[in-house]
Amino acid sequence: MAAEGIRFTDFYAGNCYCTPSRAALLTGRLPIRSGMSGRRKSHVLYPKQPGGLPASEITIAEALKTKGYATFAIGKWHLGDGPEHTPLNHGFDEFFGHPLSNDSPPFKPEFHKINSMSQNPDSRHFDVPLMRGTNVIERPVDQTTLTKRYTEEAIRFMKENKQKPFFIYFAHTFPHVPLFASEKFKGKSARSLWRYGGGTGLERRRSFEMVAQRKVGRQHVCLFHQRQRPLA
């Protein structure tokens, strides 16, 4: 993709933490202006914590919908888990992913220390829901399946909307810890702090290639970037 496209060597995110950086990316505004900058000891939104991206904020999805775009949010949201803060309330026609981080909340506090930085984490230790729209379809989700399922959803959406403009906000769950990879990719790369983490990276790269190279019958632009520090 870099060889065939444009490579930007400098990129500045609105913040290094999940919630504020996503707010900045989707709105184009500094997160402090939307109230998503976080507090000193709580930089991100946690389960059942009130608040989320304000309805007054205009996201890129809302702006594109005014031009006839179909819109889809895939992956990690982390801009509020209340019913009034879902992606469907912020310009997205569809959502397939989880509302908060993939490491919270653990069923028991000790699971967080054991599994978040583990080389062999267990999805069953984290009460992470997988949602389609506003409905929970799996809980806890088997996180080893997420990258593959995200990719399949993206390709499905592209096929269904190939005759109209569309926008996909594809926010992969990983590299946030705990890292998971499917059996096909697990342990396939040593270029990582953890061997299985390398498999996670390879699987995400393959996912992006499959989506970016999809022939959808019209010109489209794929922008790949890392909007926060890795393994966070």
Helix content: 25-40%
Order of helices and strands: HHHEEHEEHEH
Low-pLDDT regions: 193-197
Mean pLDDT: 83
Strand order of the largest sheet: 4-3-2-1-5
Helix/strand/pairing category: alpha/beta
Question: What is the CA–CA distance across the termini?
Answer: 25 Å
**How many helices?**
6
Over all CA atoms, what is the radius of gyration?
A: 17 Å
Q: Mind summarizing the main beta sheet?
A: 5 strands, mixed
Please count the beta strands (DSSP E, at least 2 residues each). Answer: 5
Structure description:
The protein is α/β, with parallel strands linked by helices and 232 residues long. It contains 6 helices and 5 strands; from the N terminus they run αααββαββαβα. A 5-stranded mixed β-sheet has the order 4-3-2-1-5. α5 runs parallel beside α6 (195-212). The radius of gyration is 17 Å and the shape is globular. The two termini are 25 Å apart.
What is this entry, summarized?
With 232 residues, the chain is α/β, with parallel strands linked by helices. 26% of the residues lie in helices and 11% in strands.
